[in-house]
Amino acid sequence: MDVILFGPPGAGKGTQGALLAERHRLLRLSTGDLLRDAVREGTQLGREAKRYMDAGELVPDEVILGLVHEVMTNGTAASGYIFDGFPRTTAQAEALTDLMRRLHRTLDAVVVLDVDDESIVKRLAGRLWCSQCSAVYNVYTNPPAVPGKCDICGGALVQRDDDREDTVRRRLEVYRAQTAPVVAWYRNAGLPVHNVDGNRSVDAIQNDLEALIRK
Ligand code: AMP
What we know:
Blueprint: E1 2-6, H1 13-24, E2 27-30, H2 31-41, H3 44-55, H4 61-72, E3 81-84, H5 90-102, E4 109-114, H6 117-125, E5 127-130, E6 136-138, E7 157-158, H7 165-188, E8 193-197, H8 202-214
Helix pairs in contact: 1-8, 2-3, 4-5, 6-7
The structure holds adenosine monophosphate.
């Protein structure tokens, strides 16, 4: 089973994708995570990508396609993929179609998590990460007991560089301009596109996704 999760940044693709991947033994392929790994490791690709990521812009297609190709052709074929944050341009969607054809895979579903812009800004601008154990908080919806300190390990809470409000607003513009058309591209290609209301609890959304997958 191969599924693409679309949705603006902060729509919950990572959370929902991880739950689905665990439950159905699929591989969650998140290009954002692959890029952040490269940034953390300080590779040349990571250093180059960081400039785009910090500005809320898309990393060039060639870089992204190279990463995806590496994961999907590394010999340990996954029983299925949950694509999270990829494809983000029609060029990426075309390249994915080619690659899947060569690997004899077919896309089963395209899911869009819909969340309104103001909720996104609140979610992301308020999101904090523990610099030590990576626990996630939100100053509005899930604040730590002591401001700036992780409840679990006491580590310092920090904001992801691209979660600052101005960058979040740019990421939303980029999503509307460059990624929303990819959904239309799949619809025109005849694939079933399912819209799911992402302004609800994690459980409610996961139940909808499960129902879709069972279908
Ligand atoms: P994400 O964690 O998916 O929100 O991705 C964080 C950032 O990584 C994005 O704002 C982009 O700068 C970059 N990025 C992730 N995936 C892609 C992609 N498929 N194409 C271009 N840039 C990407």
